[in-house]
Design brief:
The chain has 136 residues and is α/β, with parallel strands linked by helices. It has two domains: 2-96, Uridine Diphospho-n-acetylenolpyruvylglucosamine Reductase, domain 2 (2-Layer Sandwich), CATH 3.30.43; 101-136, no CATH class. Helix content is 17%, strand content 30%. The protein has two helices and eight strands, in the order E-E-E-E-H-E-E-E-E-H. It has helices at 57-69, 120-129; strands at residues 2-5, 13-16, 28-35, 47-52, 74-77, 90-96, 103-106, 111-114. 23% of the residues are buried.
Amino acid sequence: MIMTLSYDSPGQVDWCNDQVSPLLGTDCVIRPDVSLSSLTSYRVGGPAEWYVAPNNLDDLRASLEWASSEGLRTTFLGSGSNLLISDQGLSGLVVGTRHLRYSHFDLGTGQVTVAAGESLPRLAWKVARLGWQGME
């Protein structure tokens, strides 16, 4: 069973068994009972009750609105490095942030704005290339 969400109408869901049919042009797909072991560096852990890996902020917003409307707890999952997840899994909605990549460097203030899915090694490389310090 796969559920797709529409950004234009986050409460509207489509349940389907065999194919994903995004609603109103979005491809935000929330899947039930997804194994989390393949998403961690230790390769252990049970399933997420619900799992989504949004591609953009609109999909993230729609996913969070759906979880809220269903009364579900939300857990964010980054790259899964050094993370242990119980074999019993996680209840609620697990949001994988791996596709949410963005970084902005304000040369005037020295401030960096980074999205949750941005790779830390890649960020460190960019900061070092600018000659900045302090990411220890």
